[in-house]
Specification:
This protein is α/β, with parallel strands linked by helices. The protein is built from 9 helices and 16 strands. Bound molecules: succinic acid (SIN).
Amino acid sequence: MAKEIVFLGMGGTIAGTAQNAGDNVGYTAAQVGVRQLLLALPGLQAVLGARQLRSEQVCQIDSKDLAHSDWLALLERLMHYLSSPDVSAVVVTHGTDTLDETAFFLSRTLPAHLLAHKPVVLTCAMRPANSLAPDGPGNMVDAASVALCGTARGVLVVCAGKVHSAAHVQKVHPYRLDAFDSGEAGPVALVEEGRVRLLSCWPQREGLAFPVALLQGRPWPRVELLLSHAGASGALVRALLHDSAQPLHGLVVAGTGNGTVHKDMEAALLEAMAQGVRVLCVSRCAYGQVVGGSAAVCSGAFASAALSAVKARIALMLEIAAEQ
Ligand code: SIN
């Protein structure tokens, strides 16, 4: 029997509609189902060949509003489809705003053996589905080309002809069609007229075996994100420590330069650590990472990570969940 490629819909601008087709800004995200998007996709059949097409709507959401439960729903459907011998790859249509977070979350939670021979390719659009010149259809066909190219592995993001790894991708522009960048690592590959040109290596080592059951049926550890800046104080840290809504487990601080933190915020962070809160520092710089590791961050007081702040929050949340 011919293998299947599965498209999972999560919403986003790729599924958005504008009242005026010339408006690429004032639209509503997450209006059109993934099945409908696929029906309107010229060029997909040529990529699919004899393969069967299957689709499922997992969420229909503006990705700025994603909840941890939406990630869990997506993770569960991916594990289901990737486990099936009939499925050769999965493409996920998703909003651009938190796409880098979802990709990173999946790369850390999907079991490595499920990604060893099949890729998960996330794609998106910067213009709504009924735009005069939508970018979603091209991105979806490119995503299918990557998914079915035969060698692609790991969790990937396809946008504007570039293929990024979950580890490095970041949204870097609020409007341009080429809104994603992988910083100093660069894209993994390019898609040119349906052909995939590999520039480095597929991300083979992503998808460490995370005990997914630890995320099911219970609240996830509370890890909040802070930014150190001129004039920063310890007020937010202390407010979080005293917030009775949900206990605080961790704090990620996007520090200045090499992960440094304003001295007033640093004092409050040390208080938080004394109360058992995990503190992780990253650099708020657009490129590079903390040099010298944790030893360089506030004289070794705080751990550091070579990740963007939003990804570091996910990494710390998973680390704490695994220890609970
Ligand atoms: C979203 O992230 O869901 C809306 C914005 C976008 O997809 O570009």
